[in-house]
Amino acid sequence: MKILIIEDEKELLATMKSFLESERYICETANSYFAAEDCLSAFDYDIIILDLTLPGGEGLNLIKLIKERNKQAGLLIVSARNSLDDKLKGLDMGADDYITKPFHLAELNSRVRSLLRRRQFNGDNKLIFNDIMINIDSGEVFVNESLIDLTRKEYEILVYLIVNRNKVITREALAEHVWGDNISYADNFDFIYSHIKNIRKKIEIMNGRNYIQNIYGIGYKFSER
Amino acid sequence: MRLLQKTNRAYFLISLTTLIIAGVVIYFVLSFILRDNLNENLVSDIEVVKKSIEKNKVLPNYYPYIEVVEVPQQLVRPSLSIDTLIFDKAENEMVPYRQISLVTEINGKKYFIAARDTLLEKSDLLATIVIVTGLVFILLLIILYYVNRRLSMKIWQPFYKTLDELKKFSHDNPEFRLTSLSDTDEFRELNNTLDKLTQRILTDYQSLKRFTEDASHEIQTPLAVIQSKLETLMQDPELKKGQAELLSSAYSYTLKVSKLTQILLLLTKIANDQFPDKKQVNFSQLIEEKESMLADIINEKKLEIKKDISSEVFLETNLILAESLVMNLLGNAIRHCLTSTTIYIILNNNRFEITNSGTPLSVPPEKLFERFYKADKSSESHGLGLSIVNEICSVNKWEINYKYENDRHKFIVIF
Asked: pTM for the complete prediction?
């Protein structure tokens, strides 16, 4: 899978690149409008991550170019502007998704994954981790081939954790992904813990293993220990 | 009050006082002149009577106008001019008369001669004057009203035109110019000043808008870098417990700063009226939605929510702002509510009320809506939620009130 990251902030670009590379993507980068133009005219990409505020040109103009040259690529817009205008304009012009700065790396990963899933028409829409299998299309979760019944929130948490397997996920990133901005009204994250507990219990009943580790003071990690 | 009404009122009062004073003066002058005239007539009447007695030796008697009586020789009386009342049989009432009388000697005999004439009754005089002044007053008012109206339409017309144009002024239209012209110096000056002022507002507004956007962008990018670096660092499996704690704390404060800048940007946008798209928003549905979004937090705190929500309450407003209003008020209630208590929500076409338990405020309630105000300094809240609510209410011209009753905090939005 080949990803082009267009971002003018070098440090952010480097972190995004190394994070996505650790997820086994091939990443190319462009840090200006012109560099992006060069990459786009020379190569094909599966996913393009585009920062809308670039030196040397308005990022929205690049969308047009991407739609001409890299029609099949999934386009994820990143911007510090959380103005609805830009979001709608970007989506109108053919962007597939929109993420606002600053974002959680796990969230970026999750968005890239779901974009890829949507691109692959004949690809499998199954998320598999050892004895756990999730059918993304139907929203069903199987442990050792038996269906388990998860609530909407539990399902979203589990998918997020598995997509970001072997990565430490902060409680904040998890909460924001599942509960959105509403999370800022909570005084603590205790309710996340009770959902995690339920997921573990439901997996355990079907003799599944407990892959969800607590990372002290930070959050959770879904891995095989 | 309109300008025309004000000038009319002033004219009315001035004409009224002037005419009242004039009426009083006219009354006194007129009665003085009339009396003087009457006296002269009576004096000449007496002279005529004297001559007639001298010549004809007959005493004329036209009571009550002329009265002549022969009196004893030794009687001496000065000549008198007095007002007197005489009974009038025809009208069956006492009628005032002016009387001049004297005692004089004609052909060796002494006579008392009195000449009288009716005084115009005072009340009659007064009534006449009042009626005449009243008529003049009404005539004056009518003339003033029409002249004034014509003048105000003609002279003030450029002013009203300027006013109409100014009403169309909006931040969203950078092309705005005042076009109305006038040959009146004052209006021309007013137009020029207003034109400069509006141009100034527009450029200031544009640069402020750009500044807030740029500032937010400039702050969010470094924050994004910090956040991503911290998240990368967290992946380190060798991380010790103490390091993880430091990292986690730095991380959560980074998120807080980023949230703060986003909210400040939102506040600026609301205040600048940058949420123009209005539509009919179903508040009844909105409240249910937001409540279910917060369900986990509500359950965690063991809260009960009692609702009295009229169905299908639609309000014309911006959807994002409506969501933000409901979310902030509900979130505020949940945050400050004591555990295992009840939150009451009332919604109808006139108002949205939300009540939660809690300790009384430590500061005056009007501080509640100020930016960065926090009831509890240690609280996780950013202290901007109620400022947002206040700002949203003010752009929608809704009224927000706060009350503390029976150990409960109550917020009321009146639509």
From this structure: 0.65
Q: What is the model's pLDDT at position B250?
A: 93
In chain B (415 residues long), the average pLDDT of successive 10-residue segments reads: 81 88 88 86 88 84 84 82 83 84 86 84 76 88 86 82 85 75 85 90 84 78 90 89 90 88 82 81 89 85 88 88 89 86 90 88 80 68 83 88 87 90
CA separation (Å) from B323 to A184, B103, B135, B329, B331? Answer: 15, 108, 66, 10, 12
CA pair distance B211, B264, nearest whole angstrom: 13
Which residues of A are less than 8 Å from B382 in CB distance? 184
Read off the DSSP letter of residue B62. Answer: B
Residue whose token pair is 């539509």: B279
Q: Residue A12: which of B225, B262, B294 has the nearest Cβ? A: B225
Q: Which residues of A170-185 are buried (b: 16+ CB within 10 A; e: fewer)?
A: bbbbbbbbbbeebbbb
A154-162 LR contacts (CB < 8 Å, sep 24+): A154/A195, A154/A198, A154/A199, A154/A202, A157/A192, A157/A195, A157/A196, A157/A199, A158/A132, A158/A134, A158/A199, A159/A127, A159/A134, A160/A106, A160/A110, A161/A212, A161/A220, A161/A222, A162/A127, A162/A129, A162/A132, A162/A134, A162/A222
* Among chain A residues, CA nearest to B244: A217
Nearest chain B residue to A221 by CA distance is B235
How many interchain CB pairs under 8 A, A with B?
115
Residue B359 is given by DSSP the state P
**B223 neighbourhood in chain A, CB within 8 Å:** 101-102
Measured between CA atoms, how close is B369 to chain A, in angstroms?
A: 17
Determine, for residues A53 and B251 on separate chains, whether the beta-carbon distance falls below 8 Å. no
A191 and B296 within 8 Å at the Cβ level: the answer is yes
Looking at the DSSP bridge assignments, the partners of residue A220 are A169, A214
The answer to whether the Cβ–Cβ distance between B228 and A16 falls below 8 Å is: yes
Interchain pair A216, B296: CB under 8 A: no
Between CA B251 and CA B227 the distance in angstroms is: 7
Higher model confidence: residue A86 or residue B244?
B244
Contact B217 A81 (CB under 8 A): yes
Contact partners, residue A164, CB within 8 Å, separation at least 6: A106, A109, A110, A222
pLDDT for residue B160: 85
d(CA A195, nearest CA chain B) in Å = 10
